[in-house]
Design brief:
GMP Synthetase, Chain A, domain 3; alpha/beta; 3 domains; Rossmann fold; 32% helix
Length: 458
């Protein structure tokens, strides 16, 4: 297992900026006011051919009016417990804070390597700001600048030297599962239930989750990457810059996932925004599972589940292939069954269909329902082939691609579903024109061929 390095410190010392620089990413949200980071954010780093996992944490405070302070402190303690090495980041411009003393006192009892780095030291001239920090009773203090990179390379050299010996990790192909939904539908609670720990900060206050938070879990010995995301509200209701960035990160998480768990608050019922969020997942070509959460508090009759299913199918016709499941993140109702469904969806999502069977399906479909005429000529479907998977994508060559009506396209997709058994995954069908012309490799060969043709003619 790769060594884990946790970054801790009081609010606004630059932990997320340092995290982003070292991981060479924009994995952690950064802003000028305290409390932006709440959950633990993980990133992979390779330094001097040594790989490790870097963990960003929320700002440490003992007493605060922030409702999330206690939950954030809990997350910090978990990060320290899991880490092999700890970095305490201090503020070279703001100077010493009582919170710094509290953190140092807490870390003195930790039997792990602890590095003390003073951030916002942009050059040698600013290193004079280090002297005050020796009052904290710390021997080795490292000057760094997360913004400009000053001192970061030398600091990382020192960090990787203390890593414990470990066996190199075998690369594992993990199914990437992103949990999405509008605010406060229970996304973080669902992941905590799956992981069996308080991995994510949970609150009834909408907007608790801000970053896209990755968690690795194993179910029946099989690894999955779970990504919790910020709640996606309607565009008209989003005004704060931070929330806009959070939503952008949520949408980007859909672009890198295999299966999206679209969480819906069953107690409130299916809303227009639930359908919009599902639409975002569909547009990005994800496999989808619709989860009706909070099922334990829904008033039920004989046909309640059936009515919810019918409503969803009616409102989200574009997701008629997506399985629907009723769950409760609070009680764990049917949560263990989610991964069996994820596996089933993923198998279809990554499936490949041979050209022979595919064209047999196409031939049977066009014989069963003869293509219409276009400008006095019959539409002809010559052959089809699969060009990619995740999702399964097929190209069909026809004489008039633009003339294929969406209803006939939908008919062909349904025939492919029926013939291949791909009933739980999105399918993309692209029409292209078969020209019949010789395609030359480049302009030179094209010119040479034309020249040879002229010489033969005369």
């Amino acid at each position: 297992m790769k060594p884990i390095v946790a970054i801790v410190g009081r609010p606004n010392v630059g932990k997320s900026s340092f995290f982003n620089r070292v991981t060479r990413s924009k994995g952690a949200l950064v802003d000028d006011f305290p409390g932006v980071t709440r959950d633990r954010i993980y990133g992979n780093v390779k330094w001097d051919d040594v790989e490790f996992t870097l963990v960003d944490t929320g700002g440490f405070v003992e007493e605060s009016e922030d409702d999330f302070a206690r939950a954030i402190r809990f997350q910090i303690n978990l990060a320290i417990e899991d880490a092999d090495v700890i970095i305490l980041l201090l503020d070279g411009k703001g100077g010493i804070s009582p919170f710094d003393t509290d953190l140092i006192n807490m870390l003195r009892g930790v039997r792990k390597p602890v590095f003390y780095a003073v951030n916002k030291i942009d050059d040698t001239e600013h290193e004079k700001n280090l002297y005050d920090f020796y009052k904290l009773g710390v021997e080795n203090i490292y000057p760094v600048s997360a913004e400009h990179g000053y001192g970061v390379n030398d600091f990382l050299d020192e960090v990787v030297r203390v890593f414990p010996d470990s066996e190199p990790e075998q690369a594992e192909d993990m199914i990437r599962v992103t949990v999405v939904g509008r605010p406060n539908v229970g996304k973080s609670s669902l992941i905590n239930c799956i992981l069996g720990e308080t991995r994510l900060v949970v609150s009834e206050v909408p907007g608790t989750t801000r970053d896209a938070v990755d968690s690795v879990c194993k179910v029946n010995g099989k690894p999955y990457l779970l990504v919790d995301t910020a709640g996606i509200r309607r565009k008209g209701k989003v005004s704060e810059k931070l929330e806009k960035f959070s939503i952008i990160k949520a949408l980007r998480s859909l672009e890198r996932c295999d299966v999206a768990l679209v969480v819906i608050d069953a107690k409130e019922g299916v809303t227009e925004q639930d359908i919009n969020v599902a639409g975002y997942a569909h547009e990005r070509g994800c496999g989808c599972i619709l989860l009706l959460n909070k099922w334990d508090i829904v008033e039920k009759g004989n046909n309640t589940a059936k009515e919810y299913h019918e409503r969803l199918r009616d409102e989200a016709k574009f997701l008629n292939f997506a399985p629907i499941m009723t769950v409760s993140a609070l009680t764990g109702l049917r949560v263990p069954r989610i991964f069996a469904l994820v596996d089933e969806v993923y198998i279809q999502y990554a499936a490949r269909i041979g050209t022979g069977p595919l064209n047999k399906i196409l031939e049977t479909a066009t014989e069963r329902s003869v293509p219409p005429y276009y400008k006095g000529k019959r539409l002809k479907f010559y052959y089809a082939t699969q060009v990619s998977s995740k999702p399964p994508t097929f190209v069909c060559f026809v004489n008039y691609p633009d003339a294929v009506h969406f209803s006939y396209k939908r008919y062909l997709i349904n025939q492919i579903r029926e013939g291949t058994g791909l009933d739980k995954t999105p399918i993309r069908l692209i029409f292209r024109q078969r020209t019949g012309r010789i395609e030359f490799k480049d302009k030179k060969s094209d010119a040479k061929a034309k020249k040879e043709g002229k010489s033969k003619k005369y």
